[in-house]
Specification:
- It is globular, with a radius of gyration of 16 Å.
- It is 37% helix and 23% strand.
- About 3% of the residues have low confidence.
- It has a single domain, classed as Rossmann fold, CATH 3.40.50.1820.
- An eight-stranded mixed β-sheet has the order 1-2-4-3-5-6-7-8, with helices on both faces.
- By secondary structure, it is an alpha/beta fold.
- Strand 1 and strand 2 form a beta hairpin.
- It holds the Pfam family DLH.
């Protein structure tokens, strides 16, 4: 398994953040910012980072404490993007991916920043984040949204509203629903495998 590392990264302008990252063994295909759920950088997030690196992506997760507000998420993402560029990743090969609350954060980044690709797996509104449909209506980056219909996920009708809003943004978008899957996709292993492949395919298609 690809190893993950953690470092304190500071810019010349004083901005700093703690990053957990993993590097591909061979050629770097691009760089991905990984936005985690509210429980900080867990073992599950480290596994995700390592798995993305194994597929050729330089993947890094900024530490964002608690249920972060929009400004915190964007600031952390901007510093992480700068770190990826410092590592030699071209700006047109940068993307973002998030799971659970990080899925909402990834959607928000895809609306407020122009990136090569973005993927949200699950997503919840949260107290500090705007309504998902409002965010989706102003997407500026190619965005894939993957949702399960079970548990605390947005209801099927809400996901369809999200699909409609994203389509009106003018960006390339796709929204996929998995009935019976929860936000972690651990209730349906088949759906989890397919969602992972969809994620990789989205980045393959848009970051090249």
């Amino acid at each position: 398994m690809t190893q993950t590392h953690t470092e304190h990264y500071q810019r010349e302008d004083g901005r700093a953040i703690e990053l957990t990252y993993a590097e591909p063994d061979n050629v770097v295909r691009g760089g991905l910012v990984v936005l985690h759920e509210a429980d900080r950088v867990t073992d599950g997030v480290r596994l995700l980072i390592a798995s993305l690196a194994a597929e050729g992506w330089l993947a890094a997760a900024p530490r964002i404490d608690g249920e972060a507000a929009r400004e915190q998420v964007l600031a952390a993402t901007d510093i992480t993007l700068a770190w990826l560029v410092d590592r030699g990743v071209p700006v047109d090969l940068l993307g973002v991916v998030g799971f659970d609350l990080g899925g909402t954060a990834a959607l928000m980044v895809a609306a407020d920043r122009m990136l090569g690709a973005a993927v949200s797996v699950g997503g919840q509104g949260g107290k500090e984040l705007a309504a998902l449909t409002e965010i989706a209506s102003r997407l500026s980056s190619p965005w894939l949204g993957i949702f399960g219909d079970a548990g605390d996920e947005p209801a099927a009708a809400e996901v369809e509203l999200l699909r409609e809003a994203a389509a009106k943004s003018g960006a390339v978008t796709n929204v996929v629903r998995y009935p019976g899957a929860n936000h972690r996709f651990d209730a349906d292993p088949k759906a989890a495998v397919e969602a992972w492949q969809r994620t990789l395919s989205w980045f393959d298609a848009h970051l090249r």
